[in-house]
Design goal:
The chain is built from 1 helix and 17 strands. Strand 2 and strand 3 form a beta hairpin. It is mainly beta.
């Protein structure tokens, strides 16, 4: 097994999910664009570099410390507004004292997660030919809470609110948005892979964390398969495309 990273070393988190709690709604808001995290601890105890998994090191409790987050500035193309999660971090950085206390949730690529309270002590902005880079400094308050891991037990596909095992489309007709439904709904790892056995019949595009789009191309039948990264659970969708 891979060793955990030593105290103060950056972790590439492009495949992680980072959230910040919106206190008004009590819902976690995704922070997009994050690419690295550096965690430093103020303890001389075991720092996670021994016999631990890569993901396990940040979850060691009974420590105080700090986090440096870095990412690219994200602007929502449809609205021209800055990413809501990044803006919330900026607002905390502009506050002071207890008003700068934010709750963040970090989820690694395998679905292991922790939640912690952090004082956002500062932020910096730099720009080059690749775009604008943002960084935030955070001081941990108290201990983090390691969230229980929930294994995927089943996966299904939906067309709107209805379960979808088969789908009829027409050449030149509208595309369909298919959602991926996990059991339990609170499963820790909701990553999935999509395969298409007849790319000349339909195309699969706009794959997001929630689902994907199917567009009819030519007459025929195709099978779209979704397989969960966690547990290898599979759901199939038979798509029949008819001439208009």
């Amino acid at each position: 097994m891979a060793k955990g990273r030593k105290n103060g070393c950056p972790v590439n988190i492009k495949n992680w999910l980072v959230y910040i709690l919106d206190v008004a709604t009590q819902e976690f808001v995704r922070i997009y664009g994050m690419n690295s995290l550096t965690r430093s601890t103020d303890s001389e105890t075991e720092d996670g570099s021994a016999e631990t998994d890569v993901w396990a090191e940040p979850y060691v409790t009974k420590r105080s410390g700090s986090i440096e987050l870095e990412g690219k500035e994200v602007v929502v193309e449809s609205t021209g507004e800055n990413d809501a999660g990044q803006e919330m971090l900026n607002n905390y950085a502009d506050a002071a004292g207890c008003d700068a206390d934010a709750t963040l949730k970090f989820v690694d690529p395998y679905g292991h997660a922790w939640v912690g309270d952090y004082i956002v002590t500062g932020r910096e902005t730099s720009a080059d030919e690749s775009g604008t880079t943002l960084s935030w400094s955070l001081e941990q308050v108290g201990e983090v809470e390691v969230l229980p891991y929930e294994q995927v037990t089943a996966v299904a596909l939906k067309d709107g609110e209805s379960a979808a095992e088969s789908l009829n489309l027409t050449i030149g007709g509208a595309a369909k948005i298919i959602t991926v439904d996990f059991t339990p709904a609170t499963a820790s790892n909701k990553r999935f892979k999509v395969t298409n056995n007849k790319r000349t019949v339909v195309s699969v595009s706009n794959v997001t964390e929630e689902g994907f789009t199917i567009t009819p191309l030519s007459a025929g039948t195709a099978t779209i398969s979704v397989t969960t990264v966690s547990g290898g659970k599979t759901a199939n969708l038979t798509v029949t495309v008819a001439a208009s």
